[in-house]
User: What shape does this take?
Amino acid sequence: MEKKIPLIEKYRVERFDDIVGQDIAVQEVKNFFKTFPRQKALIFNGPVGTGKTSMAIALAHEYNYELFELNASDLRNRASLDEVLKPSLEQSSLFKKGKVILMDEADGITTTDRGGLPELIALLSKTHYPIIITANDIWHKKFSLLRQKCKIVNFKELSESDIKFILIKVLHAENKRISLETLTLIAKQSRGDVRAALNDLQSVLDIGEELFAQEISEREKQESIFNILKKLFQRPFDSNTIKLFDSTGMELDEVLLWVEENIPEAYQGEFIARAYDALSKADIFRGRIYRQQYWRFLVYENFFLSAGISASSKFKNITKFIQYKRPSRILKIFLANQKNQRKKAIVEKYARLCHVSKRKAMKESFLLPFILEQMDPKTKKSMDLEDKDEEFLQEKKAAIIVAAGLNQFR
Ligand SMILES: Nc1ncnc2c1ncn2[C@@H]1O[C@H](COP(=O)(O)OP(=O)(O)OP(=O)(O)O)[C@@H](O)[C@H]1O
Ligand SMILES: [Mg+2]
Assistant: This one.
């Protein structure tokens, strides 16, 4: 089997020409090198996945420089700094002209005591080599001194059509096709982040378009539920509280699982007990709805779940960061459903092949891993099993063998 390189590595930009949607930035980089050393350093500033690191790699290729990467801890280390200032190892060779220093992802460097920023600024006045600094937010106040000494090159979020262009190029190179609908979905989801787009494309190629679309709609639901939980647990109770769940596409029962999981994350002490009390009341009405089909009880389930939970705590702080969790129970149900659908699909193929009813095929399904193993390859091929089907069958077989083995010992 061929080894799998992630798309973001396999198709990493290597030349200026490969960089999409950053024409102004490319031009500014070229100008900088024309006039170097008028200014010593460039800052590549912009959102994630827009080509900052790639631009550094590309310019090293284009100008035949050795790319010397520096990290924050190097700045605190004399020996590393001397190494940076020393002539390039390869400089004496015929192959490289010199070096360019890359301080990638500078956002994290500190200003205090033996921080890194003062050292970085000192380095600017000592170096003979161009320095590239990349950051997501260079306008943070701690960088004000650094900003004055560098030329800032802004990278922008890529447009939807730029992202599509990149994805189509990759698909072409991979000799793969996907629907326009999925292509658009990926481009929209990426919000101008090429890395995110390529990673999503990877998932589509791995799990298929249908499952991918399902996963995105899960992701969207989650994004909104996180906001709703924040309002529920952290905003003071008011007349809007009972309308909180109206905007989600999620069933109230699923909301209940999210609330259940997150009460202990958000509340403390006796307020946890009060919140669970409200939750249990919501759950009583949920049970009555199911047993008696009294749908008008939804009003009460909603009331206890929103107002009840919100009013359980007196301490509300909307600015506090709380890491809300995804309920573990849903995930298990979801996985079980996936498996079930896979099994159904295989059984259908088998039923068609043998001209038996699906019901009968389902009854014999526990034998399928063994039947298919004995089947002659041509017949089996006509069943059109997917890789994931095969994987599922292997798993089942292993489980059956283990179970049989255990029985022998009983
Ligand atoms: N403008 C672009 N044109 C073509 N490919 C791009 C572009 N921007 C990013 N990519 C691709 O996306 C991936 C990530 O890019 P890169 O690492 O350069 O992003 P970055 O801006 O440095 O992000 P971060 O801020 O997270 O470090 C790479 O595979 C790269 O080839
Ligand atoms: Mg980067």
